[in-house]
What does this fold into?
Amino acid sequence: MRDLRVEIDGRAIVDGVAFRVLPGRVTALVGASGSGKTTTGLALLGEYPCGARVGGEVRVATGGPVGYVPQHPASVLAPARRVDALLTDVARPQVRHLPRGGRRTAARARVVRALEDAQLGDAEALLRRYPHQLSGGQQQRVVLAQALLLGSRIVVADEPTTGQDGVTKRRVVEQFAALTDRGIGVVLLSHDLDVVRALADEVVVMRAGRVVESGPAERLWAAPRHSWTRELLASESGLTSFDVGETRSRRPVVRVRGLVARHRGGSRSASVVLRVPALDVHPGECLAVVGRSGSGKTTLARCLAGLHRDHDGEVRLDDTVLPRSLRRRTRAQLASVQYVFQDAHAAFDEHRAVVPQVARTAVRLRGADAEAARREALSVLARLGLPEHLVLRRPGELSGGELRRAALARALLARPRVLLCDEITSGLDAVTRRDILSTLTQLVREHGDLGVVLITHDLATAALAHRVAVLDAGEVVEQGPAREVLDDPRHPFTRSLVGTAEPTARR
It folds into this structure.
């Protein structure tokens, strides 16, 4: 890539970017949300924002397609097709040279092997599921399996460890290391500096669409030259000083009892994916829900929000049992329980500007005047670091981190009693992550009746909460004060989770 420049409406979102990727090497692009990493990565696929003016040169000398693992995997997984069909469509062209009778078996073998290479266990069960029945981490690994099936010599990985636990993260690092051992070049776009340290041979640091520093990874970590690089590295340690304060009430705002959730696969009998005998969320409290990818964290949040109705047991808001289905809940109940999704792009209409979509929450759920709602939306968005000129754009023109903050603003306009935050800090740089957690802390302190459920794979983030609930294979294995559970875990699974080391360098 030489002197890449991408302009939209006369404004350069990427300007003068240059780097090269060698076979069997990892080039990592790091920087804050909105720095231009994804635009740069997509340029390797020949993809640019609509209406963009492009200058410079991008040359891919592989003779084959460029594999792509997006930050938001649901955007490339057809929601009405099972995983089996999605992957078989990719594998089928590669077995056309075989006799007709053996093609199906060969394609199936390739699919299962790709799932195993992408660190997805129990492939047969996963193949029967639809994308919405997978966790965010599982969706991401299915997309990785698609890229592996393509047989590409270059893979662009956009936040491939977003929303994944330490064990899975380490396996993903091992998988990409294995790709480089086969001579495949990897372009890694990531905010996770531990993963970058473990994988990268070369590092390109971006800010506001420009490269501020680049070079061999070892040199850059040891002696960063640019002030922004030093700030980015220093901000990692700033997360641990965060404190959510004391809870104000022992009377739960949400009470879960005897919850048993299921997934159904066509004509097959339903399989139980989550059991929660008892769980409470108190006003003025942050409850962190942790566990490995696929452990049931998101299913729990969806049950609370009325998005997963195939469950037994009850979810109470104060003293009222909430209907299982979102469609049967009143406006007041809808406003009281708000969900901030992990995949913010899928939660917005791509054809409309961000501001009216955020303001619409206040109009529909609180009956606010349209103009008053717009002013309130702009105020909340600005508080979250999103100025007016940015949120007047469509969602596709915002970065993943920017859109995640817009999704949080939209939920806050409902003035909820309970805020369900599903991996809202994953895939963000340390500076933005710190700012969002600080905002949540301030919200809890200012609104004593607000309860926050923070679903996260990041134990450092979970340690900031008041309490933590640990899920393993759909079961709550331990819960209690966050510091007690994470500093002195009693259950073997929690001990293994806490003891998971960060990804180690492949060299």
